[in-house]
Amino acid sequence: MSKPRVMTSFFKLDKEIQEQIKLNYPRGFEKYLIRFKNHKNKFVSALPYETEDKYYMVKMSLEEAHKIILNDEDYNERGVLKEAVQQSYQDKYEDEEEEDLDLDIDEVEVNEDIEE
Length: 116
Known about the structure:
single chain, 116 residues, alpha+beta
């Protein structure tokens, strides 16, 4: 089954998704924009981002991508995600991924008859 595709603006996304996008694109969005024709046969640009359950196309022009980074306090004057912010987001979202992977040792069946 394919994932739902969502086309939206950056500012309409939940804060958590915005943070994950920043973590995925720590050097800004400009060079990752893709162009395609929309349903009205006009060229649009968007930033692709995929989660476990959705595929996002975050609509933005080259100018908007630049402005978002320029006006975001999470990025430094060179347009790079600040190290402390990046570490904070990594800790926040890696912990969530690890929680998903945690297994109760009683749930694991061990087969000791494995031959090497």
